[in-house]
Amino acid sequence: MRVVLMGIAYGALLGVVFAALLGVAIAVAAPQLGLALPHRLAGLSPTQIVLNTVVVGLWAGALGGALVGLLIRLFAPGKVSVGRWIGALAACLPLVWLPFFGLRGFLRNELIGTPDVIQLVLTVVAPVAAAIMAGALIGGRLARAARPIQ
Q: Is pTM, for the whole model, over 0.85?
């Protein structure tokens, strides 16, 4: 149980940090480049954009952290490299919807330009990459914490 609770705490913390960084990038880069924001962020102030992404990061991080903690506890206590892989994969599961919606908007355009690619990177690639990095960090740490006492 301790490993799962640590996973929730670590996941929520890293989810908030990475989401805040991503929210700042979206809030700063999108207006500068003339990018169309996703429908949930359109028309919001930069502060509201950051806060919305932080809330999503908090929930996705906590959910992913709980999943990582449970999987590590069951399958990889003490196995750091396996824990990192489990963490990277499990942290991506709450974000599995991002590529669908991001690519759907991307493929609606007849001509794909630089702003479209930047938008895809900001709204799909960067969050998934951040989740992979955070999951690997959490998975390795939780695998060490779940190591049986000898």
A: no
